Amino acid sequence: MAPLRGFEAKTLLFLVGLALISCGAQAARRGLVDNGATVFDVTTYGAKPDNGQTDNSMAFIQAWNAACKSTGAAKLVIPPGTFMTSEVFFYGPCTCQTPIIVEVEGTVLAQSDLSEFPDNQWISVRHVDSLIIQGQGTLHGQGEAVWKFDSCGGKTKCDSRLPATIVFSDVSNSIVQGISLVNSKGFNLKICDSSNFTVQNITITAPADSPNTDGIHISRSNQVTILGCTIGTGDDCISIGEGATNVSVSGITCGPGHGISIGSLGLRPDEHDVSGIVVKNCTLTNTTNGARIKSWHQSPRIQASNIVFEDLVMNEVRNPIFIDQHYGSKKKPGSSLVKIRDVHFKNIRGTTISTNAVALSCSDVVPCEGIELVDIDLSYTGGSTIQNFIFSSACEHAIATFSVNSGEFGPETLMDSRVAYCRESTSALWIQRWIRQFQGEDGVRRDTLGSIQFGHGFAG
């Protein structure tokens, strides 16, 4: 074979380079969608990334059905671009090899017309085992176009809410990771009747005044893990509802919003117990509540027990520690019958703009029991100009234990395992104890920095 001339050789090298680049890009794409998996790209089924001009719901559903009913490894891919849909249903059970993967790389917009969501949810995932939803893409609810139509009007008791962005029902052994949820019409992500479910490293964003835009809501589910998420909404960053058991929440950055809440509980007659909840290593900033448990009056007899809030940082939080068994029901007759017991608040520190750092407002029929507060250190930053302003806590129908384990406070502030049974809606009992603790024999108050241990003290 004759040797190649210089021009031909350069041309060949250029073509080989292009081929290598092409192969590299394809290999990268295969790596993104997992080697060996058959790719079900929504554009293959007719989806058009035309910035919201086309309703692509059927293309998404058809791509899912094809992936779900296949026999090998399967991945549904939403490629880069902006796609608009109305209601989308990803239903199983599936016959493909598990896990089935949904890769979200583009932006999906929800229809702004509320009539397109008769089931009050945008994306519904049901009866699926071993699902992974991942990617760097975004589910944009376009809630800004419809929040003004929220019929709840700020009412706490309301069944007519705007559509949730994505709802998982009867989904097991599954993971949601990496994606972003923006401006949901209603709740962002709901996990119901599911088990062994993990949500990690996702971002949820909505304005502080957006109505009922809870970040992640969990109900009637077991073994749920939420970790490493950044959530800012107009409602609870995370709400743990009835029937939730063995839930772990950690590494959450929350704010704005209403904090991390258990409840509200007891609204409906067929609710189930809540137990085994651990919330750790979270930071809450400019939220209306911090660690909260809330229940309704005239509730069914259920329990909320074995609950831990630990290693939390509060930044300008209004109600850092709050048990509210009169949630939305102050004018409604009848007491809450939700029994709250074995709740542990440990190592909660930071700042608050509330004059009541700790509020335990429990049921007069089934008082709270086994409430433990350990190493609570909060500073008031509400800007009061009143000299010797009392920074206190409120207690109603609770048996609570207060203690310091760190040993960093002096003997005048140390209160080892003191137990208070608060029967009346008053903080007087607690304040008197803390006056004795913080005021020496010379009458000088020792809490000169305005910080508060166990939710009691004086702002200097």
TrEMBL record:
Active-site residues, Swiss-Prot/TrEMBL: H258
Q: Which organism is it from?
A: Camellia sinensis var. sinensis (China tea)
Compartment(s) where it occurs, according to its Swiss-Prot or TrEMBL record: Secreted, Cell wall
UniProt name for this protein: Uncharacterized protein
Tell me one GO biological process term: carbohydrate metabolic process
Keywords of this entry? Cell wall, Cell wall biogenesis/degradation, Glycosidase, Hydrolase, Secreted, Signal
The region annotated as signal peptide is: 1-27
Spell out the InterPro entries in the cross-references: Glyco_hydro_28, PbH1, Pectin_lyas_fold, Pectin_lyase_fold/virulence
